[in-house]
From TrEMBL, chain A:
The keyword Membrane does not apply. Gene3D superfamilies: P-loop containing nucleotide triphosphate hydrolases (3.40.50.300). This is Neuronal-specific septin-3. PROSITE patterns: G_SEPTIN. It comes from Electrophorus voltai. It is found in: Cytoplasm. Residues 1-55, 351-370 are annotated as: Disordered. Its main location: cytoplasm. Belongs to the TRAFAC class TrmE-Era-EngA-EngB-Septin-like GTPase superfamily. Septin GTPase family. PANTHER family: SEPTIN (PTHR18884). Keywords: Cytoplasm, GTP-binding, Nucleotide-binding. Residues 359-370 have a biased composition (Polar residues). One of its GO terms (molecular function) is GTP binding.
Automatic annotation (TrEMBL), chain B:
CDD domains: CDC_Septin. Residues 375-394, 408-429 are annotated as: Disordered. Transmembrane segments: none annotated. Keywords: GTP-binding, Nucleotide-binding. Residues 375-390, 417-429 have a biased composition (Basic and acidic residues). Residues 39-305 form the Septin-type G domain. Belongs to the TRAFAC class TrmE-Era-EngA-EngB-Septin-like GTPase superfamily. Septin GTPase family. Pfam families: Septin. PROSITE patterns: G_SEPTIN (PS51719). This is Septin. Gene3D superfamilies: P-loop containing nucleotide triphosphate hydrolases (3.40.50.300). One of its GO terms (molecular function) is GTP binding. It comes from Electrophorus voltai. The keyword Membrane does not apply.
């Protein structure tokens, strides 16, 4: 257990005080006697070396065991472990590090101890990445948090997204280089940024130009999840109004945050994601201190007028965001990054260089010469 | 292995951290599995064996369905492969199963080419995956994977040893596909013979260096059962889709006058073991091995064949990009050179033709001049003649004129004389 941060207030280390929720084990599928598959019209032609044909699947009489592949796959993934890379972007003092620590329930982000401003604000945007291996329920995850100190802190903030954009593209480039090798590694290390949490200052009015510029430049290269930081400064009405204004502004500027409408796969996805998009950006409060409320120990912020409970859905949307980010869409974030953002980068990169198609090189060179 | 890689990397640049509460990412495997389930799985099996050895029946028995198959003749001139795809579903898992059967394997008089078609087929599937992977705009997650994940090699139950065709084929295929040898029609061999047969087969495979698929033993949950099964290879199977009543149940079996061979009875044959291993325990591993070992090997060989390297002669890492750029430059230069050549040839030809034409022109000119000269000569000759004719004519007319004049004079003289005469005559009177 990590040592408690001594601040004079009564702080206990977060141990099993908040009991871990028991995740229900997935139900083992019952062995069916009759399963109906879809049927295709069989057509066979055995000409030449091989003939392709689709046959009709008839009724499966009795249990075969095809559904055990789920268990096999699960075992395999648990053995290999997962990577997850999350980037936090926002001006200093918006509570980025605290939020990450609250999200992952540990001291993932190294905050400057005591919030003393001994550390100078960097002159340009720096990129600092820290990795940790965390384990839960047999699942090992290598979590990398990429911090961007200095963003939006200078007097002239033009092009402050450039170092960030460069970093993100560098990770794509690294992956591409590995993928393109002749002798490839069994598992290419994934350092690509899967998710970027953008912290919006809770002014209550509208987005700043900096916010819009950043999101405009990066919404097509990385999954951006906007959050309203320090949301305990907004009343409920102000919160709703602010959110609506932000959403409208983003729509007007053509900025698509995650989950993007265009990647909804089917109707079910669309309706689920629509509900989430309606509540975004999440208005969050972060804290790593615990207080006693109604006999329970909860994470919260103690103020003169009350205690803001972080995990109380009536107080702020932290639990909503956590469930969305970690419990339901973590894998989807990775997949969208891999299947869409990375592929876009790759296609652009290869197009610029005339293609990477060794077999029909003549076609490609001619095309690129045109 | 991958896990130790991750672990080592983890130790190097990632500190392990303990969580003080429940975060919730232990649902990650579930999320992954849900995604895969909604996409569906695909599995491709290749069955190699002689005609009539029981491949289709075994597939029917294995997947508990009746795939529509028809018997093939024994007179195929070449080995062909017939692939059929089926959509199967069990609870919420959708499987796209492709079964590829060899047709006419081992039927020809000269079997030297038999394995080549199979190897070509497997390579074609790898090739189309490689092509897709190398495209600029690609959609790998939607791609219907047609690479062969498992190859069941059917050994004829002779009881003696492997045929040379078997050895040669398996040797050619062992680096391209996961081979699982099975002894077909195992109900024709007695238990003791079977034991000896299995030992003989395995020793032959080992002595010839054939690498068959070994069930993975690194995962504790399955290592025990897999190690045990590895010792039972090759599986002696019996296939049947007919059912016979035993006791009060209907079981799949083959009925003989002397007894009933039950397919799912482990004392009778190894069918249950095969199903266990192939489908229930190792399907995912088979797919993974195909992708990470066999496909990677194919890809590496193919790309090296085309001249791509990871490091150039000075052992500096060369990216595929640069190699390709270099090749492209080469190619462009080649094109340019050829263009130049063609242009040169063209110019040459034009010159030649021009010369020819000039020559012809000169000739014609010469002829023309000659003709003209002749013509002139003729003309001058004619002129001369005309002149002489005119001269003659004029001299003739002169003479004529002179003659007439004389005649005229003579006549007047005569008439004067006559007049005088007349006057004289008249004067006399």
């Amino acid at each position: 257990m990590h040592t408690a941060v001594s601040r004079g207030t009564a702080v206990k280390s977060m141990s099993e005080i908040v009991p871990p929720e028991v995740r229900p084990k997935p139900a083992v599928p019952a062995k069916p006697t009759h399963v109906v598959p879809s049927a295709n019209v069989p057509h066979v032609h055995g000409s030449g070396a091989a003939g392709q044909g689709s046959g009709g699947g008839s009724t499966l009489l009795g249990y075969v065991g095809i559904d055990t592949i789920i268990e096999q796959m699960r075992k395999k993934t648990m053995k290999t472990g997962f990577d997850f890379n999350i980037m936090v972007v926002g001006q200093s003092g918006l509570g980025k590090s605290t939020l990450i620590n609250t999200l992952f329930k540990s001291q993932v982000s190294r905050r400057s101890s005591g919030w003393s401003r001994d550390e100078k604000i960097p002159k340009t945007v720096e990129i600092k990445s820290v990795s940790h291996v965390i384990e839960e329920g047999g699942v090992k995850m290598k979590l990398t948090v990429i911090d961007t100190p200095g963003f939006g802190d200078q007097i002239n903030n033009e092009n402050c997204w450039e170092p960030i954009s460069k970093y993100i593209n560098e990770q794509y480039e690294k992956f591409l280089k590995e993928e393109v090798n002749i002798a490839r590694k069994k598992r290419i290390p994934d350092t690509r940024v899967h998710c970027c949490l953008y912290f919006i200052s809770p002014t209550g009015h509208s987005l700043r130009q900096l916010d819009i510029e950043f999101m405009k430049h990066l919404s097509r290269t990385v999954n951006i999840i906007p959050v309203i930081a320090k949301a305990d400064t907004l009343t409920l009405d102000e919160k709703t109004e602010f959110k609506q204004k932000v959403r409208k502004e983003l729509e007007v500027c053509g900025i698509e945050f995650y989950p993007q409408k265009e990647f909804d796969e089917d109707q079910e996805d669309k309706s689920d994601n629509d509900k989430i998009r309606e509540t975004m950006p999440f208005a969050v409060v972060g804290s790593d201190k615990e207080y006693q409320v109604n006999g329970k120990r909860v994470l919260g912020r103690k103020t003169a007028w009350g205690i803001v409970e972080v995990e109380n859905p009536n107080h702020c949307e932290f639990s909503l965001m956590r469930d969305f980010l970690i419990r339901s869409h973590l894998q989807d974030l990775k997949e969208v990054t891999h299947n869409i953002h990375y592929e876009t980068y790759r296609a652009k990169r290869l197009n610029d260089n005339g293609g990477l198609h060794p077999v029909s090189s003549s076609n490609d060179t001619q095309e690129s010469n045109l | 292995m991958a896990t130790s890689d991750v672990a080592r990397q983890g130790e190097r640049n990632a500190r392990p951290l303990s969580l003080s509460g429940h975060v919730g990412f232990d649902s990650l495997p579930d999320q992954l599995v849900n995604k895969s389930t909604s996409q569906g799985f695909c599995f491709n099996i290749l069955c190699i064996g002689e005609t009539g050895i029981g491949k289709s029946t075994l597939m029917d028995t294995l997947f508990n369905t009746n795939f529509e198959n028809f018997e093939s003749s024994h007179f195929e001139p070449r080995v062909k492969l017939r692939a059929q795809t089926y959509d199967l579903q069990e609870s919420n898992v959708r499987l796209k199963l492709t079964i590829v059967n060899t047709v006419g394997f081992g039927d020809q008089m000269n079997k030297q080419e038999s394995y080549q078609h199979v190897v070509d087929y497997i390579d074609t599937q790898f090739e189309s995956y490689l092509q897709e992977e190398l495209k600029i705009k690609r959609s790998l997650h939607n791609y219907h994977d047609s690479r062969i994940h498992a190859c069941l090699y059917f050994i004829a139950p002779s009881g003696h040893s492997l045929k040379s065709l078997d050895l040669v084929t398996m040797k050619k295929l062992d680096s391209k596909v996961n081979i699982i040898p099975v002894i077909a029609k195992a109900d024709t061999i007695s238990k003791s013979e079977l034991h000896k047969f299995k030992i003989k087969i395995m020793s032959e495979l080992v002595s010839n260096g054939v690498q068959i698929y070994q069930f993975p033993t690194d995962d504790e949950t399955v290592s025990k059962i897999n190690t045990a099964m590895n010792g039972h290879l090759p599986f002696a199977v019996v296939g049947s889709t007919e059912e016979v009543k035993i006791g009060n149940k209907m079981v799949k079996a083959r009925q003989y006058p002397w007894g009933v061979v039950q397919v799912e009875n482990e004392n009778h044959c190894d069918f249950v073991k095969l199903r266990e291993m192939l489908i229930c325990v190792n399907m995912e591993d088979l797919r993974e091995q195909t992708h990470t070992r066999h496909y990677e090997l194919y890809r590496r060989c193919k790309l090296e064949e085309m001249g791509f390297r990871d490091t150039d002669p000075e052992s500096k890492p060369v990216s595929l990009q640069e190699t390709y750029e270099a090749k492209r430059q080469e190619f462009l230069q080649e094109l340019q050179r050829r263009e130049e050549e063609m242009r040169q040839t063209f110019v040459q030809r034009v010159k030649e033709k021009e010369a020819e034409l000039k020559e012809a022109e000169r000739e014609l000119q010469g002829k023309f001049e000659q003709l003209k000269r002749l013509h002139m000569e003729e003309k001058s000759k004619l002129d001369e003649k005309r002149k002489s004719l005119e001269d003659e004519m004029s001299s003739f007319s002169k003479k004529k004129a002179a003659a007439e004049l004389l005649q005229g004079q003579a006549f007047t003289a005569n008439s004067n004389l006559k007049k005088d005469k007349d006057r004289k005559n008249s004067g006399f009177m």
